[in-house]
Amino acid sequence: MARRDLIPPEADHPRARAWYYALQLGSLEYKLPPIVSHRWRRVTFIATSGDRFMNAVEINDLFEQESPVGQLYVKLKELGIPVEREWWIDEEGTAYVVDLTLPIEGGWLPVTFGDRPAPPRPAACASPPRPSRRPA
Fold it and tell me: What is the mean pLDDT of the chain?
């Protein structure tokens, strides 16, 4: 569609004859059941697939599942273990993020993969981390 057809009030624009794509969306629809989050988080965008979106029960199901972190997440969920992804931790003023957290008696066990920095103290796994909102 030419720009002049897409934006008629600007028919004399220098790019009026340039071709543009027009994307038209229908009305919003509710997803039933909705995709829930078991903890507070602010989400602006998650790159996902249509299949993951349609089959998601919780928000963690939307994230990619091909990486080692994603594969472990899927396997733990299949085993019925409640696991969280991208968990922000604030310990004594030091904030960091871990790839996964697993429930342990009295808290959560942080798990990091690859190049992501490990918790600042090795003993961080012994005491349960306190969930935190992402630092500003």
Answer: 80
